Amino acid sequence: MRAVLYENAKRYAEERNIPYIETSALDATNVEQAFRSLIADIYRNWTARKDSM
């Protein structure tokens, strides 16, 4: 069962300039990748801010 249409989610992410990774809690598709991507983005932002101080 799809809770959100792909097109709607993709458009929402693009409008806000945020990454979009489709996941599934049912079979854990891309769940680990989504968390790894989130952590990598947080780390990149943190180091960029730290270096600019």
Largest sheet: none
Point out poorly predicted stretches: none
Q: What is the β-strand count?
A: 0
Number of domains: 1
The tally of helices reads 2
Q: Strand-residue fraction?
A: under 5%
Order of helices and strands: HH
InterPro entries: P-loop_NTPase, Small_GTPase
GO molecular function: GTP binding; GTPase activity
Pfam families: Ras
Can you characterise this structure?
The protein has 53 residues and is mostly helical. The chain has one domain (6-51). It is built from 2 helices and no strands. The protein has helices at residues 6-15, 31-51. The protein is flat, with a radius of gyration of 14 Å. The model has no long low-confidence stretch (mean pLDDT 93).
Structural key phrases:
53 residues, mainly alpha, 0% strand, P-loop_NTPase, Small_GTPase
Topology:
Blueprint: H1 6-15, H2 31-51
In short:
The protein has helices spanning 6-15, 31-51. The chain is mostly helical.
